[in-house]
Amino acid sequence: MIFGLAFFGREANYVIWGLYALGIFVAAIAGILLSRTIFKTREESTFVIELPAYSMPSLKNLWLTISQRTGQFIRHAGTVILAASVVIWILLNLPLGVSSLKDSWFGRINNVIAPAFRPAGFDSWEASGSLVTGLIAKEVVVSTMSQIYVGEEREDDIQERSTFAKDIRSIGAGFLNATIEAGKELVEVLTPGLRIFQTNQEAEATALSEELNKVFSPLKALAFLVFVLLYVPCVATLATIRGEFGWKWAVFSAVYQTGAAWIVAVFVYQVGRLLGYA
Fold it and tell me: Whose C-alpha in 20, 41, 178, 223 is 20 to 30 A from the C-alpha of 4?
């Protein structure tokens, strides 16, 4: 939504709707291609399911189902999410004493990855870095960009070196703030149409939009949105695929979705350039 409002104004709703339609279209095409290639040799089987009589579920059965599914998700996805979060945190904070995300291992690695996205129009380390953190959850893409572009600690303003104790306090404060914000969001959901809490999210979104306008054009933003839409799902989804079908299919899903996202994003950007929208 932030990208839509920043670059497309009143047309943002049409762009967002178009992204949904594109996702459905690409999924249909991928299903057709896979069914005629990789899954072609598999024997067709008849699937028959008998629907039970509909009735109000009992609280006991509801609790058992929720606890079973939640426990299964935590076992399959929790370890992967934790591992990915730890790796990214380490990359953001090494080498020791780093005062800028660009100079951290995270920035250096993404500076190497960035040229791969040049045909799609977004070849900055900030863009590729937000895509990497988006592996934890795609919502993190925007928060990463907000941290990079409009974070409170600018490179020129940092005067003290980060220490382990300061990092621990920062993590604790961040977790507490996230918990409070999650509670506010839950209250807002439970009271539709009634705005209870006033936050500064609008101001932050406006500041981020202004910064994004300096580094993205509408065409580049559209290509970026297309890539975010189609590329590898979050690690929780990959962990679920691994739990159900094994690592082979989890890796295959990550590779083919990322490849498809790159191809479609490059197509959108290059066609847009040919049409004079660059």
Answer: 178
For residue 244, the Cα-to-chain-centroid distance in whole angstroms is 22
Residues in the chain: 278
Distance of CA 69 to the CA centre of its chain: 23
Burial code of 172-183, b = ≥16 C-beta within 10 A, e = fewer? Answer: eeeeeeeeeeee
Distances (CA, A) of 151 to 79, 208, 235: 29, 9, 25
Find the angle CA(85)-CA(239)-CA(20) to the nearest 5 degrees: 90
- Angstrom distances, CA of residue 185 to CA of 136, 146, 181, 197: 20, 19, 6, 9
CA dist 150 and 128 (Å) reads 17
Report residue 100 as tokens. 């800028």
One-letter amino acid for residue 111 of the chain? N
pLDDT, one tens digit for every residue, the chain (278 residues): 677 777 777 778 888 888 889 999 988 998 888 888 877 766 666 777 787 778 787 888 888 888 887 777 676 666 666 676 677 777 777 777 777 777 788 888 888 888 889 898 888 888 888 888 787 777 778 777 777 776 544 444 444 445 556 656 665 665 566 566 656 665 655 555 555 555 544 445 567 777 777 778 888 888 999 999 889 887 778 877 887 788 888 888 888 899 999 999 999 999 998 888 76
- Number of Cβ within 10 Å of residue 234's Cβ equals 19
Domain map (residue ranges) of the chain: 2-36+80-274
Please, what is the end-to-end C-alpha distance for the chain in angstroms?
Answer: 21
Strands (E), the chain: none
Q: Which residue's structure tokens are 């994003």?
A: 265
